Sequence to fold (141 residues):
Amino acid sequence: MDLFDRIMELSRYGYFCSQILAILMLETTGEENPGLVRAMGGLNGGVGFSGGCCGCMTGGACVISYFTGKGEDTGMDAPEHKSAMGEFTRWFNEEMLIQYGGTDCNEITRGNPAKRVEYCPQIIAATYEKCMEILSEKGLI
Fold:
């Protein structure tokens, strides 16, 4: 099954952008973490379905941080953390502005919820691919 088909399948199960990114990441690493998937649901639809910052931007940042961020009291961010986050957020801002006119869900969908079906799967796929590209280039996956 290719990436787009998997995204559509997860969407049919009722998952949204950030949760789908988390599931794809966990599948890539061979892990399961239902708590993480549930928590990522808070980012869906522009943070709690408010129409704010796209869940792919916040979810993508979480995917990067999953591999690079501080995770224990005595730990530290990976040295690549800030550069990976910066590269991702710059890319996301530029791409979404060019293609959709902004980075908020309401800007991307122009306030039309039906546009989610048209735009979101493509944005999820592009976001996941970019996250994996950045992590791979930095030797983190």
In short: The chain has seven helices and no strands.
